[in-house]
Amino acid sequence: MKKLAKFFANVKEEMKMVRWPKKKEMVNYSVSTIAFIALFMGFFAIIDAILSFAVKAVG
Rounded to two decimals, what is the model's pTM? Predict the structure, then answer.
């Protein structure tokens, strides 16, 4: 039981050292992530359309 208590005490100390992002930073990270996902979604949609067209043309 002492090990568990020590573990949670250590977790609490580590969490005090974490640097959490500010709201503006979080918004920037979120927008960047969504833009990155949208870019790759478009890329794979184009690749899918090209491959679908090629398969239909052959078959």
Answer: 0.65
